[in-house]
Amino acid sequence: KESIVKRLDAVAELKDNAICREEIREYLNPVYDLERLVGKITYQSANPRDLIAFQSSLSMLPSVKYILKDMESDLLREIYEELDPLEELCDLVGRAIQEEPPLAMKEGGIIKDGYNDEVDRLRKAKSEGKNWLADLETREREKTGIKNLRIRYNNCLLYTSDAADDRISV
Fold it and tell me: In whole angstroms, how far apart are CA 168 and each of 46, 132, 155, 156?
């Protein structure tokens, strides 16, 4: 009986306070199905757009919590006190994931530039591969002392050679 009364008190307070009710509705309207999103994230089947939807939904929590702070019913007070706005998580996803990521993970381009040094380095190596190979070739020539050392990329493997017919796979 106690939980039913608490719920009825909360409903009555929201019914009587149209401004707060409409504000809460306005903030909750763009929230995606969090249960589905959390399930997809938990089972590692979320795509990059699911993560953006999750971040977008989390971004509404501080505003909802702010509105609940002035509520007087026991249930709404409890919700206010227990509601974690997850601002750190929201910020992390916002800093890490592109605003308009591709639909599939395998397409790449999900992580923002500057978020992770290793990702930036690998992305740069991919986009500037020829320069990277030329630099590697120069370094290996100096290191090995082989003056006519060549390093080439053939879509299958990286190989080096010190003569046209003598190839060494690396």
Answer: 42, 19, 16, 14
The residues pairing with 161 across neighbouring beta strands, listed in sequence order, are 150, 167
What is the enclosing helix (H) or strand (E) of 153? strand 150-153
Token pair recorded at residue 153: 């990329």
List of residues 6+ apart from 168 with CB closer than 8 A: 159, 160, 161, 162
Q: How far apart are CA 27 and CA 17, in angstroms?
A: 16
Residues 85 and 61 sit within 8 Å (Cβ to Cβ): yes
What's the pLDDT band for 168 if we cut at 50, 70, 90? very low
Q: What angle (nearest 5°) sits at the alpha carbon of residue 87, between those of residues 79 and 107?
A: 125
What pLDDT is recorded for position 126? Answer: 78
Using CA atoms, how far residue 96 sits from 15, 25, 48, 54, 117, in Å, is 40, 29, 11, 13, 12
Q: Where are the alpha helices (DSSP H) in the chain?
A: 2-16, 18-28, 34-42, 48-58, 61-68, 74-82, 87-96, 117-127, 129-144
Instruction: State the pLDDT confidence band at 169, using cuts at 50, 70 and 90.
Output: very low
